[in-house]
Amino acid sequence: MLHDLPRPSWPAADGPVDVHTHAIAPRLPDLAADHLGRWPSVERVAEDRARIMLDGRLYREVDDRCWSAQRRLRDMDAEGVAAQVVSPIPVTLCHGEPADGAAVLARAQNRFLAELVAEAPDRLAALGAVPLQDPQRAAAELAYCMDELGFLGVEIGTRVGDVELSDPRLDVFFDEAADRGALVLVHPVDLTLDPRLATLGIGFGVGMPVETAVAAASLLSGRTRRPGVHLCLAHGGGALPAVLPRLDRGELLAGRAGAAGHRMPGERARELWVDSLTYDVDSLRLAVERFGRGHVLLGTDYPFAAREFPPGAVLDDLDEELRTAISRDNLDAVVAGQRLSTTRSATG
C-alpha cells in the first residue's frame, strides 16, 4: 500500500541535486482498451530493456535506468550526484488526449514514481503527472502528489491541446500550485512541435527551445497570476533568454508599456525558474542574468542521450558561489518555501 511507503526526506548529504531526470514504469495501463485517444505503452523486451510505443510504432528504446532505483543510485554514486528529482517522460503527459484516460495514466505514473522514490527516499524525490486538460482534476492530482505522496510538485507540458498555459481556464490548477509553493517543471513535448521542424531534422535543436519560449512568452505578456508557484522552464528556458528584449520592445510597440500596473516581460521573467541544461556556459550565464542567480537549478535530462555528462559540467566555469547555488542551494530554498507554505496552511 502506498500509505505504508517511506515518505521522501530531503537529502542530508551534501552535493548536487539534479532536478531534471526522467522515469517510466516498465508497464503502463492499457488505456487503448477503454479510452479513445493516442496513448503510449511500454513493451518489455528484456530484464533491463524496454520500448515505448505510440500508435503501434516505436517511439523510444529505454533501459532500466528509467525504472530501477538501484541502477540510478549506482550512476549517481559514480557521477557525484547527491540526489535526483524524477519526473515522467514528456510523451506520457498526454495533455491533448481525453481527460478520463489522462487521469488514469497520471495516477498510474504517480504511484510508480512514489514506489521508485520509496526505494531511496533520502536520495530521490519526484514531480508527478496531472491531467491538465481537466484543470479541476489536475488540481486534485497535484494535491494528492504533494500531500499524500510527498512529491515536490509536478511536470506539465507547454500547452494543453490548443490551450496556452496563460489561459484563465487553467487558473484553478495554478492556484492550487501556488497554495502549496509547488515546483512545476514546464517541459516541451516533441509531438506538439511544428511538423516542418521534424522534416528539417531540427525538432530537438530548435523546436523544443522555441516551444518553451512561446509558452513562457504567453505567460509573461498576459495577465499576472497570483504568486507562489515555482514555475521552472526546462532546458535553461529554451529560447526565452535570447528573445526577452524583443518581447519588451513588442510591448512598447503595442502601446501596452504605459498602462497602469503593467510590468514588462523582462521584469516578470525573474519570477520564473529554469534548469541549467544549456550545454553552453555563455547561454547559462545569460539565463542567470535574465532569471536571477537564485532561480537556476541543476538539470541534466538523465538518463537519455541528450543528457549533460558529467552532470553539472556547464557549471565548471562559474564562480564557486554560483556553482553551489545552482547545484543545490536554490532548490533547497524552494523546498524550504514549500514547508513554510504547508505550515501556514496548517495553522491557518
Rg over CA atoms: 19 Å
What is the strand tally?
Answer: 13
Number of helices: 10
Content-based structural category = alpha/beta
Low-confidence stretches: none
Question: Could you report the average pLDDT, rounded to the nearest whole number?
Answer: 92
CATH class: Alpha Beta
Shape: globular
> DSSP strand (E) fraction?
15-25%
Order of the strands making up the biggest sheet: 1-5-6-7-10-11-12-13
Task: Describe, in short, the structure shown.
The model has no long low-confidence stretch (mean pLDDT 92).
Description:
The chain is 39% helix and 17% strand. It is an alpha/beta fold and 348 residues long. The protein has one domain (65-343): TIM Barrel (Alpha-Beta Barrel). It is globular. The protein starts with 16 loop residues before the first strand and ends with a helix.
